């Protein structure tokens, strides 16, 4: 019989618990601590070791970049850049936007964009602060696909389209387009979140985090990558020639799947970008620009990076992002997390434990599945 249903059994259970010897209590506490260290130790270490010291502003080049960014003439930029985009009428130059969300999308993924519009991308206000969500695309290869995008843009008025062909080789160009567009057409947005279309983003939790920051400038936050290594393989699509980037490691940068920048950081990146090679990956490009401008990335393990976080309602109300979301998951998870019900501290704690355990189990299953596929492939050879 359950101890909750019978007070007598509960009394017996408590009396037995109180009779435990000191070494037995120590054993229990040790296992509880070990369990939590295995679950959360990596995140705690990341938070500690990736908390870099602020970069020095004494370098003359850094000081010049920061001063030029402060005095940037956006009116002149608008005249020069407006012809480079197919921009919807949903510009925000006259609006006070707290969080501008820019989602990198492929031209042919209209179904995915519609799913985001109906779920987490539908948030326009959080605790009284305005949120605007836009999609960022390059041009498709065919005229027929371009006509479909034109129709979609007219209907939803939330698409920014560049003049370049959208392909893996132009992703750094797309990132630079985002920076240019924010500086030029949305200079009053306090923060800009760059993310990808396969992500789930918890706008309320992210907004709460941004509102809690005491640092109002130089905010460049995401899942920080430390000592990333340039790809030196000439056959690789992400090959970076040594003459364009000779260093052994990249500077610390935020993972491309989701990171947030304050408006002043976007301006500084825009100015610094003129001397940075575009052959590096898009997220590395931003990291190099940030370093040149004296900006240190801020790590938060609530950004998932490449990981898909196993779903739990209170967990998803706490984290900022989860990667590799299919459309069915988006609708289900959004419906449950946007129900207006808050989670207590204890519920949040248990949900984070559940999320972490299930995520590890899923990764283990995927690892075994990949190993079986690899063995089957070699056996067939």
From TrEMBL:
EC number, UniProt record: 2.4.1.-
Origin: domain of life: Eukaryota
GO biological process: protein O-linked glycosylation
Subcellular location field: Golgi apparatus membrane
Record carries keyword Glycosyltransferase: yes
Molecular-function GO term, any one: hexosyltransferase activity
Pfam families in the cross-refs: Galactosyl_T
TM helices/strands, residue ranges: 25-45
DNA damage is among the record's keywords: no
GO-annotated cellular components: Golgi membrane
Record-linked InterPro entries: Glyco_trans_31
Keywords: Glycosyltransferase, Golgi apparatus, Membrane, Signal-anchor, Transferase, Transmembrane, Transmembrane helix
Enzyme type, top EC level: transferase
Membrane topology of the entry: Single-pass type II membrane protein
Family of the protein in this entry: Belongs to the glycosyltransferase 31 family.
Protein name per its UniProtKB record: Hexosyltransferase
Gene source species: Phasianus colchicus
Highest classification ranks of the organism: Eukaryota, Metazoa, Chordata, Craniata, Vertebrata
